[in-house]
Amino acid sequence: MKRISGIIETGKISEVVMPMLWFEENGYIDGPILTTFHTNLVILPAVMEYMQYIFIALGLLTTIVAALVYYKVRRKTCEGDALPRENTSTSSHERTPLLQDEQH
């Protein structure tokens, strides 16, 4: 609805969109199907909303722990290489770093 310049009665009408047709449907469900719908449409989306943040936090935590372990192992191997060797008669098998495959 809107004003029409030639009709005085429409001068005080503010422009509005009004539906000319209205359809409405409703229904009623009960029993186990109601529980299924409630679980799938209400509970699971709410749980998934929080689970995404939990999984992001676990991924970040795992990445941080892996980085800390990596740097700790790397620092130990660097410190082990920097120490003076007192006994030169040790075999190469005993000096092999932990992360290398042994070749026999």
Question: Could you outline the blueprint of secondary structure elements for this entry?
Answer:
Elements: H1 32-82
Query: Structural class of the helix and strand makeup?
Result: mainly alpha
Gyration radius, in Å? 37 Å
Our count of helices gives 1
Percentage of β-strand residues: under 5%
Backbone shape: elongated
Distance between the termini: 91 Å
What's the average pLDDT? 81
Largest sheet: none
Helical percentage: 40-55%
What does this structure look like?
The protein is built from 1 helix and no strands. It is an all-alpha fold and 104 residues long. The longest helix has 51 residues, at 32-82. It has a domain at 52-78.
Q: Quick summary of this structure?
A:
With 104 residues, this protein is an all-alpha fold. It is 49% helix and 0% strand. The protein has a domain of 27 residues.
List key phrases describing it.
104 residues, mainly alpha, 49% helix, elongated
